[in-house]
Amino acid sequence: MQAVILAAGLGTRMGKFSKDQPKGLLKIAGREIIYRTLKILKNLEIKEFIIITNPKYKQSYENFLNQNKIKYQLILNHFPERGNGYSFYLAKDFVTEKFVLVMSDHLYEEDFIRTALKKEGLIVDKKGLYINPDEATKVKVEDGRVKEIGKNLDSYCGFDTGFFVLTPEIFKTAERLVKEKKVIELSEIIKEAKVKVSEVNGYFWIDVDTPKERKLAKHYLIKNSIKGTGDGWVSKLINRKISTKISEYLVDYLTPNQITFLTFLLGIFSAAVVWLSIPLAGILYQISSILDGVDGEIARASMRTSKLGGYIDSVLDRYVDFSFLLALACVIHPSYKFWIIIAFAIFGSIMVSYSTERYKASFFQDIYKIIPQMKYLPGKRDERIFITMLFCLVNRILELFILLAILTNIRVGLTLVLACRKKPETSF
């Protein structure tokens, strides 16, 4: 399947943001708008992209597409003032099969595109959870096909998502209208051809036309970057509410790896502060826990996730936890017998993460997705760090180690029980 992307507009509503570059190449949450659609479509087996732009942006798009190793055909629209329908018409000699049509200034989450590719015609969304209904293009449907389309419809069946799955036959309608009119919009072609309508409801998508919508899109991208599994109640109720705001600010300036390294340094620094002030060290340790979510949020929002990055983050987290708890143990000068409890507390804290990561390494599955009961077990890292901070604030370190020794090792034991009950497939 091919993909046609309309990118000839001048983006005048974006003001200064698109003065020197095409709107499709504006970055939102660290990535160009068009990059997100290209990457998702490419991952879903669409290999050839037909991009229509105007001569002003030819070099910019060529540099971008070559840099990202995209197989493309670039078509120049020397008359962008004739409307996006005319831009679409220019692709007629390059499309040879069923194709996807999208706009360069639309953002979609992967699940939206994955679902839409299985549909036909104009994809509408009845819910429109992430858009302003007053500004959105509405669609009225009759017998499963487009009857009316526009922003000012009083009654409608859904919102135009700017995503289409079409066949080359539609260019017959486009050619006829282009010959009849000087300015032709895509919506006129879609209406005239009575394109079939399919629904994809509730997923994230947004049309970025203004600076306000650009800011809103970044907010949603960060918000939707929160991982669905593995968070404890502290992350859900406290940490993520703070980390997402930090991520929203830093995503345009720092890479995930830079955040990982800075968070690691803060965690090690909090361990060193134990010798100066245990309460302050506990607070810094909790702050490092909050920041520990930022690298993942930025990685997912900017489409920079990598197995190596996740691996490094996990290893560095273990160093931070070990260093902080060991520092606490050294400062309180415990008796010889109490070191046994400390050892179980530190060992258990490390084993909580090891037991879940080892499951993934053995069975290539996320244990939180395979065993839903796991999310109810107490003792995740964010919970342990928050508890540690509370005990540091009241300077009850011996009691903290007793609690951690019990909590973490019980959790590891229950993880083993749940894993055995699940009986994952094994091979010999």
- CATH class descriptor of the largest domain: Alpha Beta
Helix residue percentage? 40-55%
Whole-angstrom Rg: 27 Å
- Give the biggest beta sheet: 9 strands, mixed
Order of helices and strands: EEEHEHEHEEHEEEEHHEEHHHHHHHHHH
Number of domains: 2
CATH level 3 topology of the largest domain? Spore Coat Polysaccharide Biosynthesis Protein SpsA, Chain A
CATH architecture of the largest domain: Alpha-Beta Complex
According to CATH, the homologous superfamily of the largest domain is Spore Coat Polysaccharide Biosynthesis Protein SpsA, Chain A
Per DSSP, the total helix count is: 16
Give the distance, in angstroms, between the N- and C-terminal Cα atoms. 40 Å
Topology of helices and strands:
Elements: E1 2-7, E2 27-28, E3 31-32, H1 33-43, E4 48-53, H2 58-67, E5 72-76, H3 84-89, E6 99-103, E7 106-108, H4 110-116, E8 121-125, E9 138-142, E10 145-150, E11 158-166, H5 170-180, H6 186-192, E12 197-199, E13 205-207, H7 211-223, H8 233-250, H9 256-273, H10 278-291, H11 294-301, H12 307-332, H13 338-363, H14 367-370, H15 381-393, H16 397-422
Helix pairs in contact: 5-6, 7-8, 7-11, 8-11, 9-10, 9-11, 9-12, 10-15, 12-13, 13-16, 15-16
